[in-house]
């Protein structure tokens, strides 16, 4: 490959790092049950569409289901998701099942143009034929057709050329549906299939390589699901690491988190909220159990470095008793203590604990800064919005105060995580400026 080709491929590949510009709303299930597919197949297709979280990207908040138009940030500019309702002119009504399978698993649209890997086809490549068929039946006959033209990307020529994506696919797209791994039980294989395939968990949780490709697509790669930074959030380490990963979570803890967005260890926020709102809460107990079993089988990436976390409130108690001497303790006492407690244990699962929470212990503090500046408030379980969202402090706390309080929290209760700098807070504050965020919704 020539240097120019390589450069073009890398530029196009930058688009693989696309992330949602907005937290999408919950899609309501539309149905105009067509005569040509039986009810059971349509129901299975609708369920698989939830497992694949198609609505998170193809439905905009308050928009018609699957009509597209959601802006996604890429390093080269904004792109917009497309209309995947069965409207023949503006949607995918003209797609045959083979066209649909090719879009889903190979990232090629009906007219032959390559899709940006912001559409997670590198994961959907693993989806089996019978599941593709049920999804196709659902999108053709279970989804209301909506006439809504697709929106051009904001990427300017020549960066908007799509042919370099063909090179990217040659380099990084692994063809072939999921094959059951011998020696593993049915639940493990079902979990692996859902996590690696429709669930596309790795598209956020696996770190990206030089081509913005996911560094591993299954548990045979050491980087698989070890955590990654995306658009100002750190998608947690999902391996068995005992401090920053899921090592201290039971299978039941994990199932509770995926169903309800919170458990005794942590609660969901940022990009994970839309996954829980649109996808995992709808999965049946067998599938949630399978996902939990599979994730719990992943060994600690790189081994467990530090000793396992052990709760110790003594030193923190002293700081909180004399907050005058400690800037972080002062902010914590004034703004955080009444919900998260002097003991750092919160009132889980309602108020997240900060002591021992893997998100607090993680090396990368982006999520903590983001949550403190911008709060949470969009988790919706069974139609009911979270009763106690985390308030936003961007208007009340300076960059230095946020850095101080998070450094205090990260050191507190024996958490042992590094300090947070005011410059990092300033960066995230600018990046998540509400004015900037809102532009994409017009
Ligand atoms: C993380 C976001 C994301 C998710 C999740 C997602 N898509 Fe997409 N999809 C996109 C984007 C972005 C495009 C347009 C890409 C482009 O224009 O190059 C797209 C394009 C498509 C297309 C091509 C349509 C066309 O002709 O323009 C199809 C078909 C499609 N998606 C189906 C699905 C299905 C089915 C699911 C769920 C199983 C799904 N998508 C989930 C982001 C997503
Ligand atoms: C759109 C990006 C995205 C996708 C896709 C995604 N996640 Fe997440 N996930 C995140 C982010 C960001 C966090 C950190 C915030 C939090 O803890 O909720 C997270 C956190 C989690 C946590 C909590 C870990 C902890 O230590 O607190 C679990 C468990 C989890 N994800 C499981 C999954 C599974 C299973 C899938 C696939 C079915 C998945 N995620 C798909 C972004 C994503
Ligand atoms: C009104 C109660 C309340 C106050 C005050 C509050 N929080 Fe929270 N906080 C919450 C709730 C509830 C969550 C879980 C929210 C969710 O995930 O939807 C949370 C989550 C968090 C998280 C993410 C942990 C996780 O895994 O979910 C961090 C970090 C955090 N808060 C820090 C702070 C800091 C720092 C302050 C003070 C500046 C503060 N909170 C003040 C209620 C509060």
From TrEMBL:
Keywords: Cell membrane, Electron transport, Heme, Iron, Membrane, Metal-binding, Repeat, Signal, Transport. Heme c 1 binds at residues 54, 57-58. Its main location: membrane. Heme c 2 binds at residues 201, 204-205. One of its GO terms (molecular function) is heme binding. The keyword Heme applies. Its cofactor is heme c. InterPro entries: Cyt_c-like_dom (IPR009056), Cyt_c-like_dom_sf (IPR036909), Cyt_C_IC (IPR008168), Cytochrome_c-type_DH (IPR051459), Membr-bd_ADH_cyt_c (IPR014353). Residues 1-29 form the signal peptide. One of its GO terms (cellular component) is plasma membrane. Residues 40-143, 186-299, 323-413 form the Cytochrome c domain. It is found in: Cell membrane. Pfam families: Cytochrom_C, Cytochrome_CBB3. Heme c 3 binds at residues 336, 339-340. Binds 3 heme c groups covalently per subunit. This is Cytochrome c. It comes from Paraburkholderia silviterrae.
